[in-house]
Amino acid sequence: MNYFFHLFKSNTDLVVSFFLALTSCFIPKTDPVNTVISINYEILFLLMCLMIVVAGFRKIGVLDGIYKGCFKFVDNTRSLSRIFIFINFFISMLITNDVSLIVFVPVAIRAFTCINRNDLIIPVVSMQTVAANMGSMLTPIGNPQNLYIYSYFNYQFTDFIFVTFPVFSVCFVLLYIATHFIDKSSLIIDTDNKIVIPKKKAVLFCVLFIFCLLCVLRVIDIYILCLILFPVCFISDRKLFLKVDYKLLLLFVFLFILVGNLSKYDLVSSLAFEFVSEYEYFVSLCLSQIVSNVPATVMLSSFTSDPDPLLVGVNVGGLGTIIASMASLISFKYYVKIDGAKPLYYLKKFTKYNLRFLLVLVTLHFIFPDYF
């Protein structure tokens, strides 16, 4: 009994998601075949490949080199925070919100731990997540829902940017204002210890990372990436496979099953058909809070006649709950690994930051519905 209690306490999100996924399997019109199909194996394999590459970078000292390099350009904690937050904001539009968080959240945690400012980890990681989710909305390749909408509705690139740019711009301003409340304590850190990075392995992992980006951009297939990356990493350092966060991947599996089964529920479909055609923005925003924005996009796309409010709604809908955007779970899982982590406090602060951004954007939608 004590073992199961400890298991639940240390993996609450995993256990809860398992029981929710299991319960959803008893919804009418669900069957084992559809349940298996609902799992997005491409995303799971891509996340696994990225985790392996990032683990390789971390092992050879690249991530330590990056975070120490950041100290050369800043002299206080506010500036350092802004570097990590806005790196996620701008780079996510090119490498997706998932990838940017996988790469830069661990670096930020390492940096603030190094300067003994663990109190800044929660606000910075929370805003990194907001930045990645909102920055990625600008381009079609920034996140999965954008790519789906861009292809499904045959958007022109310029038309797509015209729709997403206003919200993107406002989020930049909001993030800058939010970071203004972070204190400007002077940085005290010993950077004299030089990090020696093995060049051959650094080049190897850089090449593998480029392959991962090409997969994100749909230039190469995910299974080709796996055929390249898995054997190379197994030969170069097979211990990297032990660094993969398999619990996070399993969490995604349970969520995919839950969302896939819910989408077959007649009540969900009928409500979507009745309300989406007139209230695309609010329906997509609200539904994203429950099933996350990517499944909400797929579920609602066939019911809308105007894709613009759907595009804005599912992206703004990435704010709010921890599952509104599955990328948010990546940051959360990295945070809970640190010593002295407070998961419930993190969720409280994370939700608080998200709701503030969400409130501003929804208010702007009421005032300027044609732009926001």
TrEMBL record:
Q: What is its main location?
A: membrane
Signal: present as a keyword of the record?
A: no
Alphabetically sorted, this entry's keywords are: Membrane, Transmembrane, Transmembrane helix, Transport
Q: Tell me where in this chain the Citrate transporter-like domain is found.
A: 15-302
User: Localized where?
Assistant: Membrane
Short name of one Pfam family: CitMHS
The record, for InterPro entries, names: Cit_transptr-like_dom, Diverse_Ion_Transporter
Q: Which residues cross the membrane?
A: 41-62, 83-108, 160-182, 202-234, 246-263, 310-332, 353-371
Record's bilayer topology term:
Multi-pass membrane protein
Specify the protein name: Citrate transporter-like domain-containing protein
Q: Which organism is it from?
A: Succinivibrio faecicola
